[in-house]
């Protein structure tokens, strides 16, 4: 079941990456050697280690703590498939965007919460590297699942996905997770088709698209989250811009592409793929 989810998203990433390559979206410093290396190691780690580890962890804990709950909600999926699927997507997106918001939020004063936030920041930081420090880097579809190895284990939405699978929401897990994964990947492709509608000569088209951007996250919105500047703390949701608009106050709708992508990288350590993926700076944790 999990292989279907992985293969669906991986196939889309391969096709979109081939388009980016043929369209010249990876040339002239837009994508660095480290970007390619991180894309490979993160995709392998997620598919071969992290997701299987989470599945086994939840199955093992379930067998010990609550074996009678395995498959217990399958009747709910059979009786109310569409409402359960919609609820699954909304809850999963809330957990993801909430943790993402926490990763970018101001430093909390309470020390245990600060340490937890630093773990999230360490885990998420590699996702915001594009190209080198020359400012020519741009967003690419292969960046979709580029994170530190730690990030996938502490993201609550991943635990939620596999708990739902353990509880018997098999089809909901499959369709909801594939849909969300494909939408997230599509938001990382180096295209900005939504700008055509946001800048359309007809007023009603512009207004309609702007209204949709309050509900759903489109590529340019997420690209601005990957920008170097004020918008890097905007547009936390991968799918439902409703949360940015109504909950976090982080909605940003721009009518042009970002001027510059990616965060600044430290001159030595962060130019190493292995450092980006494995290192945990204990100084930042206060140890």
Summarize the structure.
The protein has 287 residues and is mostly helical. It has one domain (2-13, 32-67, 74-260, 270-278).
Structure notes:
The chain has 287 residues and is an all-alpha fold. It has one domain. 34% of the residues are buried. Keywords: Membrane, Transmembrane, Transmembrane helix. This is Sterol desaturase.
What number of domains? 1
User: Per the principal axes of the C-alpha atoms, what is the gross shape?
Assistant: globular
Helical percentage: 55-70%
Q: Total number of β-strand segments?
A: 0
Element order, helices and strands?
A: HHHHHHHHHHHHH
Query: Assembly state here?
Result: single chain
Helix run count? 13
Query: Overall pLDDT, averaged?
Result: 92
- The span between the termini is 41 Å
Largest sheet: none
- Model regions low in confidence, pLDDT < 50 over at least 5 residues: none
Proportion of strand residues = under 5%
Gyration radius, rounded: 19 Å
User: Which structural class is indicated by helix and strand composition?
Assistant: mainly alpha
Summarize the topology.
Blueprint: H1 2-22, H2 33-65, H3 74-79, H4 81-104, H5 111-124, H6 151-154, H7 156-166, H8 170-188, H9 194-198, H10 203-212, H11 219-225, H12 241-248, H13 273-278
Helix pairs in contact: 1-8, 2-7, 4-5, 4-7, 4-8, 7-8
Keywords: Membrane, Transmembrane, Transmembrane helix
Protein name: Sterol desaturase
Transmembrane segments: 6-24, 36-59, 79-102, 149-169
Task: Please give a handful of descriptors for the protein shown.
287 residues; mainly alpha; 59% helix
